[in-house]
Design goal:
Blueprint lengths: L1 E6 L5 E5 L18 E4 L7
Antiparallel strand pairs: 1-2, 1-3
Amino acid sequence: MIVTFRCLRCGYEYQGEYDRNRPVERECPKCGSNSIRPIVPKDKPK
């Protein structure tokens, strides 16, 4: 699934592949930080 990621250090957002069951080490393309989190829509039903 394609989601938007946000860097917690610089706030940069970008799109990428995300699979909750497969951990991947990510790095911000702008600042190099590894504090990246997927942005999950709040209105998404569970």
